[in-house]
């Protein structure tokens, strides 16, 4: 190879060939369409069918929700014009009811303040890079519930607002948040109890879990509202919302316990033995070794339970508490807004609100899963 | 209406358990707490439904405001509890509410077996028929051969069969399990006739695409007298509940309205004088002051005014007075005289 490099040979190239753009059918949107939608004959048939279906659904939906929709109006007259789409004027007129229920108008700032405190507390807690996690947690779990209780029910000189006036998204969030926050530690304790070697604790945990998993939530709520008043002495009556809260929480705890037990079950025995070998007490080894791993494993299951609970809260409407869906449905009976399109509009609105919350929980859980991934899974 | 039987059984069983938890002097309790606790339905057009401000409105609601006005002279001293059909009797029996004004049909079994008293009838409901105006029908007797949408497993279905059999008419039933399905079927023109309680027909009519193209036929084929209910064993409170309604009916008959009540106070008509407490003191006999009826009429209105603005011509429902007209107009609303 000692030949002169400059020696030119006709068949040796001296310069690099310019990069050609990739063939049109292996890169770019056309290739993507070919590979993903029309790769084989069955694919092609399904794709065409799906596209036709979308053409069939989307334009009428768009017309109903946007172009033909009635956006403003004083009463049903606006929405009964021929060819009218969704009656958003109804949602507009009832919006504050959907949010606060019948909470007195002049006291609604208390609900707003509670919501602001909640957001101010939880958003920094949810973002991992924000410091002072310990104080933040104390605020959210100890100080906030006390403040929220004082503000919402009206203590310390604030005008008392009884819970029968609460409604709408306020009730949905109160039931869901209390259910989620209380059922989580209860669930952990019950799961540990069920795996305990102490026979009585184990038995009580099993009885509790199996009982609450064995009865439908509707039955629990119904019993609490119809039968309970008869067993109480005259004049003593539990707050209806409180009854529902207790029922929902106990119910969710049982489900949560089983999800967490699944995580505990998946931790290899060696991890428990490692804790013992380091002379950690039971609670230390749980706190430092077992639970962090077990809970990370079952994030999808936990969030599943949370989302299920969030949507189940709407069952409180069978005992005459008007949560978001309940108050939307209640307003269908207002003759001033009765029209053919009112129910559909109200339900679409309610579905949209539920979706925002459930989708939010789902996305955040996926983010946490990725963040806490230790690389042990495959 | 299987649920009704079940509710009845549950309620009577529960009643046996609790032996009469109700304290006797409801009026004293109500005065002590400062408001009337009234049970209403969880949403029924024209009877108890929320308005734009979120306040309850409707004929059942107005009645409770009337009771509050009679007791306190202030119709706002009432709190409402929304009750489902299953909860309503237990709530009353257990003392959670003072009065139940929730489109409840007065039947003998409810009146006698549940420890309750019906205080009157503030709305005479009953099963009716709705048809498209285009059919050009004027009477239910012209319905022979029609297809009828009806909810299955209800007394409505039985009444329908009986009515057509008794009148030697044929019909084709189109039955559904759920009310929503019946609504959708009628809206989609799958049947000629929709039958359910007349008040229901009027509110369903509002949810149809063109409400004006439908009409409710005049025939009513069943008896559903709806009225307020109180606990048995407290005659004073029972009287207040009863006479609140009667005062409103009598006021209409005497032409006393919320507008002219102050002028009528100077009336020479002895009936009006006794009603408004300018002669005699009839309020005293039910534990209230002499102005009890004046306060009802002044703040809530007479029966005709309340009917008109909640379900009648002044409301979107536009229900005809029909059987709820005064007896002087050929209806059934008849108030015993105050004397």
Automatic annotation (TrEMBL), chain A:
SUPFAM superfamilies given in the database record: MetI-like (SSF161098)
Membrane topology: Multi-pass membrane protein
Compartment(s) of residence: Cell inner membrane; Cell membrane
Keyword RNA-binding: no
InterPro entries: AA_ABC_transptr_permease_3TM (IPR010065), ArtM/GltK/GlnP/TcyL/YhdX-like (IPR043429), MetI-like (IPR000515), MetI-like_sf (IPR035906)
One Pfam family, short name: BPD_transp_1
CC terms in the record's Gene Ontology section: ATP-binding cassette (ABC) transporter complex
Protein name from the UniProt record: Amino acid ABC transporter permease
TrEMBL record, chain B:
UniProt xrefs under SUPFAM superfamilies: Periplasmic binding protein-like II
Keyword Transport: yes
Domain Solute-binding protein family 3/N-terminal: 35-264
Statement: the UniProt record of this protein carries the keyword Transport: yes
SMART domains: PBPb
Keywords: Signal, Transport
Family the UniProt entry places it in: Belongs to the bacterial solute-binding protein 3 family.
This protein's name: Amino acid ABC transporter substrate-bindnig protein
């Amino acid at each position: 190879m000692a030949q002169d490099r400059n020696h030119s040979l006709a068949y040796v190239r001296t310069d690099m060939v310019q990069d050609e753009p990739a063939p049109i059918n292996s890169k770019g949107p056309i290739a993507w369409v070919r590979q993903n939608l029309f790769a084989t004959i069955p694919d092609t048939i399904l794709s065409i069918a799906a596209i036709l279906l979308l053409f069939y659904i989307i334009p009428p939906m768009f017309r109903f929700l946007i172009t033909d929709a009635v956006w403003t109006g004083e009463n049903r007259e606006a929405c009964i014009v021929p060819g009218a789409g969704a009656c958003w004027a109804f949602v507009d007129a009832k919006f504050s009811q959907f949010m606060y229920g019948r909470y007195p108008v002049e006291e609604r700032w208390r609900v707003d303040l509670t919501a602001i405190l909640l957001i101010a507390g939880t958003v920094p807690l949810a973002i991992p890079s924000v410091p002072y996690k310990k104080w933040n947690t104390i605020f959210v779990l100890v100080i906030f519930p006390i403040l929220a209780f004082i503000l919402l029910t009206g203590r310390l000189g604030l005008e008392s607002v009884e819970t029968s006036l609460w409604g709408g998204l306020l009730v949905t969030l109160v039931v869901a948040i209390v259910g989620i926050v209380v059922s989580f530690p209860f669930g952990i304790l019950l799961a540990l109890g069920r795996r305990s070697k102490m026979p009585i604790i184990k038995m009580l945990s099993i009885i509790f879990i199996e009982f609450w998993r064995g009865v439908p939530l509707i039955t629990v709520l119904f019993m609490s509202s119809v039968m309970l008043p008869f067993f109480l002495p005259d004049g003593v009556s539990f707050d209806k919302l409180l009854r529902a809260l207790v029922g929902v929480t106990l119910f969710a705890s049982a489900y949560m316990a089983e999800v967490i037990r699944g995580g505990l079950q998946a931790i290899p025995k060696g991890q428990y033995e490692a804790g013992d070998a380091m002379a950690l007490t039971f609670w230390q080894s749980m706190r430092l070794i077992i639970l962090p791993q077990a809970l990370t494993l079952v994030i999808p299951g936990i969030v599943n339970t949370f989302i299920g609970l969030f949507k189940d809260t709407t069952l409180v409407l069978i005992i005459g508490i008007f949560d978001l869906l309940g108050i939307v449905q209640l307003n269908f009976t207002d003759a001033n807004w009765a029209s053919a399109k009112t129910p559909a509009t109200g339900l679409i609105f309610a579905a949209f609100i539920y979706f925002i919350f459930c989708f939010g929980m789902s996305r955040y859980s996926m983010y946490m899963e990725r963040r806490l991934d230790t690389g042990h899974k495959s | 209406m299987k649920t009704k039987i079940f509710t009845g059984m549950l309620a009577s069983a529960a009643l046996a358990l609790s032996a009469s938890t109700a304290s006797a002097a409801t009026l004293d309790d109500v005065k002590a707490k400062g408001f009337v606790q009234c049970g209403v339905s969880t949403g029924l057009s024209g009877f108890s439904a929320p308005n734009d401000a979120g306040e309850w409105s409707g004929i059942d609601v107005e009645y409770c405001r009337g009771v509050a006005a009679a007791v306190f002279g202030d119709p706002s001293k009432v709190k409402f509890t929304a009750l489902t059909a299953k909860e309503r009797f237990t709530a009353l029996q257990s003392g959670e509410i003072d009065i139940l004004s929730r489109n409840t049909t007065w039947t003998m079994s409810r009146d006698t077996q549940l420890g309750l008293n019906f205080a009157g009838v503030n709305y005479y409901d009953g099963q009716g028929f709705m048809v498209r105006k285009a059919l050009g029908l004027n009477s239910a007797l012209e319905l022979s051969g029609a297809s009828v949408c009806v909810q299955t497993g209800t007394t409505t279905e039985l009444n329908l069969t009986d009515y057509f059999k008794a009148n030697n008419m044929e019909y084709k039933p189109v039955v559904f399990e759920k009310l929503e399905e019946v609504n959708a079927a009628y809206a989609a023109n799958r049947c000629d006739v929709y039958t359910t309680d007349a008040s229901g027909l009027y509110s369903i009519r509002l949810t149809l695409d063109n409400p004006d193209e439908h009409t409710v036929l005049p025939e009513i084929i069943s008896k559903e007298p709806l009225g307020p209910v109180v606990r048995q064993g407290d005659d004073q409170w029972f009287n207040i509940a009863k006479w609140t309604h009667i005062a409103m009916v009598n006021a209409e008959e005497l032409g006393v309205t919320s507008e002219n009540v102050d002028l009528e106070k100077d009336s020479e008509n002895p009936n009006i004088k006794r009603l408004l407490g300018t002669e005699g003191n009839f309020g005293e006999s039910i534990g209230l002051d002499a102005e009890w009826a004046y306060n009802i009429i002044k703040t809530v209105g007479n029966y005709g005014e309340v009917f008109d603005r909640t379900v009648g011509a002044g409301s979107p429902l536009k229900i005809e007075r029909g059987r709820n007209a005064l007896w002087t107009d050929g209806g059934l609303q008849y108030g015993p005289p105050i004397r």
